[in-house]
Amino acid sequence: MSARAWSAFAAISTLWGIPYLFIKIAVDDGVPPVFLAWSRVTLAAVVLLLLSHRAGVLAPARAHLGRLALYAVIEICIPFPLIAAGEQHVSSSLAAILIAAVPMLVALLALRFDPAERATGARAVGLVVGFAGVVALVGLDVTGDGSALLCALAILLAAVGYAAGPMILSRHLTGLDPRALMAVALSFAAVILTPAALLAPPRHTPSGEALASIVVLGLLCTAMAFVLFGTLIAEVGAGRATVITYVAPIVAVALGVTVLGERPGAGAVAGLLLILAGSWLSTDGRLPPALRSLGRRRAVRPAAAGASGPAGPTDARAAGAHA
Prior knowledge:
transmembrane; 0% strand; EamA_dom; DMT family transporter; transmembrane helix; AA-Vitamin_Transporters; single chain
């Protein structure tokens, strides 16, 4: 992984660790899940469309409208409302932890759809260890409560979408500028979610906290994070990119404890340690190049042929994965 990939990894791990807190604040205030998803998606789409138009990078996306629409449905339209609905009955920490199953789901889907992303050796061990951490964290927390169990299943279904979406992006869409890619995908998602949002508007005006949560979710956790995620997938592939779902729950649990007063048990501590170990192994246990070459300027090779914009692969391994 390049220094650029590690920087994107750190940023996204944070940006996708905080949404669960803000989703919880909004749904507890009475904002319907579909309306919340539509609001953040629409806000992010407007911002990215303006940025993409100003940068002149929208035109190439016209040749990929079908795949972008499919990506929007799988990665955005299905997971966003499901996670918000799930958080109506489970904690923000638990929701984030359930999403940590994404890397394992990527590996399972790859057995059928993308052999280049199959997890082998240390990466496979890391995924297993990380998933064991998820099991240790959630344990019996969702058993014995029918509503919580259904919500947990909804969030796991969202995780399937999160696993499949990056594989579409990695195989077909890495040549696009990530701003244009996500601007078009989010625009499709906003249009698709509009009818459902109109049918289920808030029953009362959202509070200031809920409105602020929607703004944070739209601008930071959606617009900025998705652009960075597109860059990360182009650099390292879908399997490694989704390892952020092992780090983001740590951020989410910390926020749940400090802000919302959630109280994970002793099993959560063991689970967090296993998740950290899984993340380390899944990235081959290597220090970021920025740390290994501290004090030296790292040479950057030209982007692979056929790639454009900030999403272009920067090494032979990445280029081969996204040819």
